[in-house]
Amino acid sequence: MKMLRVPFLMAAIFATLVSCAFSGPARAGGTFAQFFQQSANNAFHFTNISSGVGGVFQTAAVPVWFEWTKNGVAGTPISATLQFLATTNGPASTSGGITTESFSQVSMVFSTGTGASKVNLLTVTSSINPSSAGTLAGQAGGNAAALFGSGKGGQFITFSSAVMSSVDGVKNGDYSLAFSSLQPAFLTASDGILQSFKAAGSGTFGAPVPEASTMISFGVLLLGGVILVFARRKQNSGSAA
Questions:
Q1: Within a domain: residue 238?
Q2: What is the pLDDT of residues 126-177, one digit of tens each?
Q3: How far apart are CA 140 and CA 218, in angstroms?
Q4: What is the number of other CB atoms lying within 10 angstroms of the CB of residue 97?
Q5: pTM higher than 0.90 for the full model?
Q6: Tally of structural domains, the chain
Q7: Domain for residue 14, yes or no?
Q8: Given phi > 0 = left and psi -120 to 50 = alpha, else beta, which region is 53?
């Protein structure tokens, strides 16, 4: 009997761990997921392009620990990668010592695995309505900032997931990302856009999602597929004998 192809088997094992870690996300309005960088490097880059274009805040495939949470308790950390992109929506402003920058679009994709076994843990998209898709704020001259958005504040925020049915398709949730160790400091450049900087990041996600009863047991389904394949191949082997 030939062995199963490795990508399918790995996907099955991973998804089973996900479904066993928690039976579902948090209660309505609560935090259902969070992430942390696997290393302390400044993986998030804000680039001041020009006064006529604006700036881009992004990272590409940074390794993170992704966790589903329920009732304030985090589940088993999942090794994943994050792709993050946000583009500015006009110049920054400073008032009372606090500098803020709005963004016209914000997107985050958390995935694990590679190739055929790549799984979408969570995708977050936020588009402009009525004035921004998200706001980055911090003390002027400081080394920390926060990016946040909320459907209740007018943003169009949508979540999608291949492993959590109670999150997939949910709209008008919220997100909050914390950035630390900014180098250089959080300041506005002479062109009115934030000056370029690098930072380390982490974040949380909340949404008015239902209880765990609506979750699709993704891992169980895949594991069942593995068992079925083994059973069929064993049966065929027996018949050939």
A1: no
A2: 987 767 889 999 999 999 999 999 887 667 889 999 999 889 988 888 999 9
A3: 45
A4: 9
A5: no
A6: 1
A7: no
A8: alpha
